[in-house]
Amino acid sequence: MELTLKKRKKNTIIPGFTMTLGYTMLYLSIIVLLPLSMVFFNTFSMSWSEFWQTIAHPRAVASYKLSFGTALAAGVINVIFGTIIAWVLVRYQFPGKRIVDGLVDLPFALPTAVAGIALATLYSPNGWVGQFFDFKIAFTPLGIIIALTFIGLPFVVRTVQPVLQNLGSEIEEASASLGATRLQTFAKVIIPELLPAIITGFSLAFARSLGEYGSVVFIAGNMPMKTEITPLIIMTKLEQYDYVGATAIATVMLVASFILLLLINIIQWYTNRKFSLQ
């Protein structure tokens, strides 16, 4: 053990392994663990029956289904189109490429409330886009998916893009020279290299969508049991000074999100291990 620590200290570029590790743990404890632990501590003030009555209320259960379902749908959409956008930006040269590349980061810089107002204006029944459809887009779960897709797209693009840049077109040319078709090259050469980055981008977009409030609240309609997301229920309880009820629902979201992200990380580890052994 001592030999390992000495070797690590010798080979590291930045000195002070013990100090930097201690600072890392202290920083994470103050910024991440302490605020999250307060959610559980506030929830402990409730009895089990009160806690179950709060989290299992039909209105809360409907919001869980809506929040997780729309976040999952938006994540899948972003995986498909985000990967295509990253491919176009890396593999092709065209006029206005820098502008398109900059537009990808727009959801990062744009305030979420502004995005929500803009999307609600576009997709409302009388909006520029919504008026051309026979069905409602805004104030429905479909509108929520559009908003979550908008704010989650950069995570997939910016995660896949560096991997594509390092991949290079030489691998595709080598695969073609060996007689592989385009489909075989895509399925057996490109996808295995991109899959870990795609899973990472999906998990980031999914986690971001679960907690989104600003852009969704304007386009959702906020109808209980239909288009009311869980973050809105939490905000409503806070406005009613029901802090314990808000933390109880937040605890459910926190635990469910942690379990889902843990499963995604396990899948990512498995894919990395599987393709590294091939």
Account of the 3D structure:
With 278 residues, the chain is mainly alpha-helical. The chain has one domain: MetI-like (MetI-like fold), CATH 1.10.3720. Helix content is 79%, strand content 0%. Helix 4 runs parallel beside helix 8, helix 7 runs parallel beside helix 11 and helix 10 runs antiparallel to helix 13. The longest helix has 35 residues, at 243-277.
What does the main sheet amount to? none
Whole-angstrom Rg: 23 Å
In the CATH scheme, the class would be: Mainly Alpha
H/E element order = HHHHHHHHHHHHH
Mean pLDDT: 86
Estimate percent helicity.
Answer: over 70%
Number of helices: 13
Distance between the termini: 33 Å
Count all strands and give the number: 0
- What's the domain count? 1
| Assembly form of the protein | single chain
Structural class: mainly alpha
Q: Beta-strand percentage? A: under 5%
Low-confidence stretches: none
The CATH homologous superfamily: MetI-like
The shape, in one word, is: globular
Which topology does CATH recognise?
Answer: MetI-like fold
Under the CATH scheme, the architecture is Orthogonal Bundle
